[in-house]
Amino acid sequence: MDEQPELDENSPILAIAVAAELSGMHPQTLRQYDRLGLVVPARTQGGSRRYSLRHVAQLREVARMSADGIGLPAIARILELEDRVRELHGRVRDLEERVRTELERRPGARIFAAGATGSVVTLRHGTRARRATELVVWRPRPLVEQQRDSGESDDDERD
Questions:
Q1: Any idea where the HTH merR-type domain is (predicted)?
Q2: Which residue from 11, 69, 98, 123 has the highest number of Cβ atoms inside 10 Å of its Cβ?
Q3: CA torsion sign, 99 to 96 to 141 to 108?
Q4: Which helix (H) or strand (E) holds 157?
Q5: What is the DSSP string of 28-94?
Q6: Contact assessment for residue 38 and residue 62, using Cβ atoms and an 8 Å cutoff
Q7: d(Cα 100, Cα 90) in Å, to the nearest integer?
Q8: Which CATH entry fits the domain spanning 16-102: 3.30.420.40, 3.40.605.10, 1.10.1660.10, 3.10.290.10?
Q9: pLDDT tens per residue, range 49-70
Q10: What's the sign of the alpha-carbon dihedral 15, 34, 12, 20?
Q11: What is the mean pLDDT of residues 34-51?
Q12: What are the tens digits of pLDDT across the range 109-134?
């Protein structure tokens, strides 16, 4: 049997009638929210609206906030900020992965020394520089040690 691909929550696959049914709203409400920029679906080449599962979740959230008395302009701003947070989380994940990949690519390459000719030599963790020909000029210290020496705490760093 063919294996079904995993459904992406951002795939625009739902017609307006289906999205309205899943969100518990009238299709005309979805059109109004589209015009206001609250929940903007993708469009087919013919111009039909296509909603994703994420859009349906947003529509439900708009309905909840509206029922709580939050005005549409405020809801629009909240949704905009939520999208920005989601984007920034993705960027942080990407950057963390790049750092992790770089560290795996260069394990232990954190201590440097000057070679006999003046060149920079990278030493692996646990390797000592030959005193007759090399001098260690920099080695990172653990954050805890740096804070202890400078009198800082974790709370000081966040300020």
A1: 16-81
A2: 123
A3: negative
A4: helix 154-158
A5: HHHHHHHHHTSS--EE-TT--EEB-HHHHHHHHHHHHHHHTT--HHHHHHHHHHHHHHHHHHHHHHH
A6: yes
A7: 15
A8: 1.10.1660.10
A9: 999 999 999 999 999 999 999 9
A10: negative
A11: 93
A12: 456 666 767 777 676 666 666 665 55
- What is the domain partition of the chain in residue ranges? 16-102, 107-153
- What token pair was written down for 50? 């296509």
Q: Side by side, which strands form the sheet with 111-114? A: 120-123, 111-114, 135-138
**Angle of the 53-67 helix axis to the 16-23 helix axis, nearest 10:** 50
Q: Are 71 and 37 in contact (CB under 8 A)?
A: no
Mean pLDDT of 67-94: 94
